[in-house]
Design brief:
Distance between the termini of chain B: 18 Å
Strand content of chain B: under 5%
Radius of gyration of chain B: 22 Å
Order of helices and strands of chain B: HHHHHHHHH
Oligomer: heterodimer
CATH class of the domain at 116-297 in chain A: Mainly Alpha
CATH class of chain B: Mainly Alpha
CATH architecture of the domain at 116-297 in chain A: Orthogonal Bundle
Subcellular location (chain B): Cell membrane
Transmembrane segments (chain B): 78-101, 113-132, 244-263
Shape of chain A: globular
CATH topology of chain B: MetI-like fold
Structural class of chain A: mainly alpha
Family (chain B): Belongs to the binding-protein-dependent transport system permease family.
Number of domains of chain B: 1
InterPro entries (chain B): BP-dependent_transpt_permease, MetI-like, MetI-like_sf
Distance between the termini of chain A: 59 Å
Number of strands of chain A: 0
Membrane topology (chain B): Multi-pass membrane protein
Shape of chain B: elongated
Strand content of chain A: under 5%
């Protein structure tokens, strides 16, 4: 009589596999951290009203006549006669209901003013990020493989130059050369419809990508140099594994973690860069709106844009944090205590 | 891997070139307005003109000579950036020394704070805070100091943590010196070279950031000879006199590249020396 074969354990489901790769406790801790950070940043954004010189009610009234009745009305509407903490509570409540207030300058609702312009800025940031990745990552890998040789020096020199060039300077040079002299691309404006929009965004996206490329380049080069010096890479090379396999199977897997963390940082630089790029190329995105609103002390709009940027930066960092254990199994088992990890 | 030691000659030439550029810029910043008393003379009849023998880089819309404006503007552009770099060095070193040497709770708080500030887009925060606060240039410089310091904090903190278990620190502590003396007189000098190199890099970053702020119309008033401001004012003249806008852009880039390269070179020299 033959014994029945031992039961095959069922293959782990997708949820279980994801749970193993992304420990729930780790996710929960990161989510909580992001929430705390968002509260802190929202408080800072709220405090901008207190930072503006003079009476907040007059600031919110703007250029309109500051009659006692109008001031009283604004104070009542924004709860300005109550303690600051209560004001913050009301403000946060409005925010969660997506009521961002009305623009002092135009009188329209802030949400609609932002909505019109956010799409263009998102397109620009997306294209700029793609350009930065396409330039920064390959060049960083190339420089690392040619460490301390002329190619490396040249790539690093390029990095220093792009790092030293403010986005408005390179944008202006690109307008002069590619739009005015060669006539390849339009110099200003956002264009209409899909392809025309894309054509108008080529120069701005390249400008933006160049401005932040250097950070990615530096990070990638450092990470790849570090990986190349590791024993398992040396061993792979010694046993005759081809350079392409070494690069993709061994080096890039190890370098992925620091580069992902850096990519989140790059997003913060990108958001700052768009303000300048949109100003140079006369693109009606969030950047010029922010600059104009600051000049006119249009506080509700400034607060809304600042909050949007802060949220994006937080989410990018969260995404990078969550991607790390997926990329590197060693990070999946949590360190017993933070002290021991250090 | 064996590395071929190449001649350092091109590197030295580059360093010398950077130092020369920076010395010239420093001269312009100190004595530019004194040497060129007529730098802001207007010629409204001339208006924006292409470069010629009398106006090497042409003129702007008010008929002012671009070359003279650029020399006169070196001070406004570079002085603020130097202040940012030095302020960040002082703040960053103080907090970094404190965190690295004391460790424990102080370290945790300072480290967290530095990480938070580092994740923020410095230029945007400065733009919003200085713009809404109404403090203009001075407030912008102050905010940039705070937002630049986290880099220094991290650098000094990690350098101090490396040093603090070395025998000489133990010896100084055994002698009964106060903790402040050990930190400032004994540890800090060993950390200083990297700090100096980093301050040059911060200087370069501040040149770029501050000229971006004046490009966006914050800080210096319209018509001031600040390079970023000149670029913003003259970018509509690309057809009439392109050098009115491109020359200030080029100067900003040249200044920042020289500072960055010199900083990198110093950093390399110091870390190499430490290794051998």
């Amino acid at each position: 009589m033959s014994t029945p074969p031992p039961p095959v354990p069922p293959a782990p489901g997708v949820a279980a596999r994801l749970g193993a790769a992304l420990p729930p406790r780790y996710v929960a801790r990161r989510l909580a951290g992001t929430a705390v950070l968002l509260v802190v940043l929202s408080a800072a954004v709220f405090a901008l009203l207190q930072l503006a010189p003079g009476d907040p009610a007059r600031t919110l009234l703007g250029a309109r006549g500051a009659t006692p009745e109008a001031l009283a009305e604004v104070r009542a509407r924004h709860h300005l006669d109550q303690p600051v903490l209560v004001q913050y509570g009301h403000w946060l409540g409005d925010l969660l209901r997506l009521d961002l207030g009305t623009s002092i300058r135009t009188g329209e609702s802030v949400a609609s003013a932002l909505g019109d312009r956010a799409l263009l800025t998102c397109q620009l940031v997306g294209l700029g990020f793609a350009t930065a990745l396409l330039l920064g990552l390959p060049l960083g890998v190339l420089a690392a493989f040619r460490e301390r040789r002329p190619t490396d020096r040249a790539v690093q020199g390029l990095g220093v130059v792009t790092l030293s060039t403010p986005a408005f300077a390179s944008g202006l040079a690109l307008i002069y050369v590619c739009a005015l002299m060669l006539g390849w691309f339009p110099a200003y404006g956002a264009g209409e419809g899909g392809l025309d929009r894309l054509r108008h965004l080529v120069l701005p996206a390249v400008t933006l990508g160049l401005a932040v490329m250097a950070v990615l380049l530096k990070l990638t080069r450092a990470a790849v140099v570090r990986e190349l010096a590791r024993d398992h890479v040396t061993f792979a090379r010694a046993r005759g594994v081809g350079p392409r396999t070494v690069l993709f199977r061994y080096v890039l897997r190890g370098a992925a973690v620091p580069v992902t963390a850096g990519a989140a940082l790059v997003l913060a630089y990108l958001l700052a860069g768009t303000v300048m790029v949109e100003t140079v190329f006369a693109l009606p995105g969030l950047g010029p709106l922010l600059v104009d609103s600051i000049t006119f002390r249009d506080l509700p709009v400034v607060q809304a844009v600042a909050l949007a940027v802060a949220t994006l930066v937080c989410l990018a960092n969260l995404a990078a944090d969550l991607a790390q254990p997926l990329l590197d199994p060693r990070l999946r088992t949590p360190a017993p205590t933070p002290k021991a990890a250090r | 891997m064996t590395r071929v030691r190449r001649s350092r000659r091109p590197g030295r030439l580059l360093t010398a070139a950077c130092a020369t550029v920076l010395a010239l810029l420093a001269l312009a910043a100190c004595f530019g307005t004194a040497l060129l008393p007529g730098w802001d003379r207007q010629d409204l009849a001339l208006g924006a003109a292409m470069p010629d023998a009398t106006h090497w880089l042409g003129t702007d819309a008010l008929g002012r000579d671009i070359a003279q404006l650029l020399v006169a503007g070196a001070r406004s552009t570079l002085a603020g950036a130097a202040l940012v770099a030095l302020g960040a060095m002082v703040l960053g070193n103080a907090l970094g020394l404190l965190a690295g040497y004391l460790g424990g709770r102080v370290d945790a708080v300072v480290h967290r704070l530095a990480d938070l500030l580092l994740a923020l887009p410095a230029l945007l925060v400065t733009l919003v805070v200085a713009g809404i606060g109404g403090g203009g240039y001075a407030l912008a410089v102050g905010v940039l100091v705070v937002l630049t310091s986290p880099g220094d904090i991290r650098l000094v903190r990690s350098a101090v943590r490396e040093q603090r278990h070395l025998p000489y620190v133990e010896a100084a502590e055994t002698l009964g010196l106060s903790r402040a003396t050990v930190a400032v007189r004994h540890i800090w000098p060993n950390v200083l070279p990297v700090v100096v190199a980093n301050t040059l890099l911060n200087f370069a970053g501040a040149v770029v950031s501050l000229s971006a702020l004046s490009f966006l119309g914050l800080g210096v008033p319209p018509g001031a000879p600040d390079w970023g401001r000149l670029l913003a004012d003259n970018r509509t003249l690309l057809y009439d006199n392109p050098s009115a806008a491109l020359a200030p852009a080029l100067l900003i880039v040249v200044a920042a590249v020289a500072l960055n390269l010199l900083g990198d070179r110093l950093h390399e020299a110091f870390t190499d020396r430490g290794r051998s």
